[in-house]
Design a protein that fits this description.
6-stranded parallel β-sheet; alpha/beta; 5 helices; about 120 residues; Rossmann fold
Length: about 120
């Protein structure tokens, strides 16, 4: 079985740190893409982390078949919509925080896995 293709949505300060940690410290995963509403920031982070794909939208990133799951590192107000969008695309979801407004019924229908990721797993100790 190959490595898990992980994409990160939101590469501000914390999202970038999580992307770096996935890229450098999680041997079972391969960081395949980053996306941010600031496309120039996503492009810069992709270059720094030596990955080929960066996007200015979640929807464009979700079209990539190598994306198996999405780590969502967005502000609270954007989090629920990102969870629903990723689930609708059939992508598994790693969350740094659980936001209750994400529709459980739409997630259940999508058949994807949604996991709350303890911060200690992506932050060096």
């Amino acid at each position: 079985m190959g490595k898990l293709g992980v994409a990160v949505l939101g590469v501000g300060e914390m999202g970038k740190r999580h992307a770096e940690n996935i890229r450098r410290q999680v041997p079972e995963a391969r960081l395949v893409a980053v996306a941010d509403v600031a496309a120039s920031r996503a492009k810069l982070v992709a270059a720094e982390l030596e990955i080929e794909r960066s996007f200015g939208s979640l929807e464009d990133m979700l079209e990539r078949k190598e994306v198996d799951c999405v780590l969502i590192a967005t502000p609270d107000k954007l989090h629920a919509q990102a969870v629903c969008t990723a689930a609708a695309a059939g992508k598994n979801i790693l969350e740094l925080k659980r936001v209750r407004s994400a529709s459980r019924s739409s997630l259940n229908r999508s058949g994807v896995t949604r996991m709350l990721l303890p911060s200690r797993l992506t932050s060096p100790t």
